[in-house]
Structure formats: C-alpha cells, structure tokens
Amino acid sequence: MKTRAHQRGLALFDVLVALLVIGLGVVSLAELQGISLLSGGHARTRAIAAQLAREKLDDLRQFSQLQPGAPGQYGYDEIVTDAGGAENADGSLVFPAGEVTLSDISFRRSWRATAYSWCARDAPPLAGNCEGASRPAFVELAVTLEWTDADGRPGAVTLESAIAAVDPALAGSALIRRPSLLPPLATPH
Q1: 17: left (phi > 0), else alpha (psi -120 to 50), else beta?
Q2: What Å distances lie between residue 188 and 180, 182, 184, 185, CA to CA?
Q3: Rounded distance, CA 34 to CA 19, Å?
Q4: pTM of the model
Q5: Distance CA 32, CA 23 (A)
Q6: Where along the chain do its domains lie?
Q7: 68-92 pLDDT tens trace
Q8: What pLDDT, on the 0 to 100 scale, is given for residue 3?
Q9: pLDDT tens figures, 13-23
Q10: Which backbone phi and psi does 23 adopt, to 5 degrees?
Q11: Contact 94/63 with Cβ under 8 angstroms?
C-alpha cells in the first residue's frame, strides 16, 4: 500500500513538470512570433527604401539630351549638379531630394554624383586631346534613403550606379549592325 501512494505522488509531479515544459514552449513561441513580426516590419521598410532608391536611379537615367534644357527638359549635364532627374513643367524635380513619406514611414532621400573624365590621371584620353573637355565621360551615382524605425533605430539603404555621357539620340546606333567586308566564318559540321 505504501508503494501505491508513492506512485500517485509521482504521477502528480510528472503532470506538473509537463505543464511547466508546455508553458515554457508556449511563451517561447509567443516571443518568437513577436520577433518574426518585428523582423518582417524591418524587411518591409528596407524593401520600400530600396524601391525608392531604384526609382531615383531610373529617373536619373532618363535624360533626353546632353546639355541642360529649359524647364521640363532634363539634360545629362544636370546630373552632376545633384539636382538632376525628370522635371515638371515648372522645372521642379518629379523625384526631389528630401522627405518622402510612404506607408506611414518618413524617408530622407539624397544622392551624390561624382563626375569622371577620360582625361583624369592614369586614364586614356578619349580623342587624344582632353583640353577643353566640358562634359564628364560618366557620372557615378549613389542614392541614399535614411529613416528611423518605430523603435527608434536608424536605417539606411544606398544604391550605386554609373551613367555614361551618351547622347540619347545616338544610343540605339550601337545596336545597329553594319554589313561586314569580311566573309562569314565557316561553321563546323
């Protein structure tokens, strides 16, 4: 009979241990769910920032001429002024630097343009004479979006690209294949 009472107490202890293990598992799952939601929010914010940066890079690639134009006409030479991009009829930028609010998140958009010339030190001259060159051969761009998360942590995304000084009217001519004076290459059978 003593043995039977001991077994009953052991079963109650086993149930309490099992409840403790299950309770710890439920608390851990709830904490994991909270972390997952927070990480998903951070990932969503980074994705929005990357999209806004890509949007500005694409905008900077859309110049219609090399020289600066009248209001509403965006030229390549305006990229290096750090005020480039598609323009409204009044000359203001469609995608300006500064505050951008999207999905209740406030981003700060800025970009940096660095001009490079073929005439720079250790670079081959484009036409053999670099004196008097007024336009850079290409511009390196870095578009940055910064924000502060809901929990107060700062975040930033920077995308980089380069744009060459190629007249848009002539850009497609590189794809035109002219007839060759050489005979076609023989194909092996």
Answers
A1: alpha
A2: 21, 18, 12, 9
A3: 23
A4: 0.66
A5: 14
A6: 1-33, 44-126+135-168
A7: 888 888 888 888 776 788 888 888 8
A8: 54
A9: 888 888 899 99
A10: -60, -45
A11: no
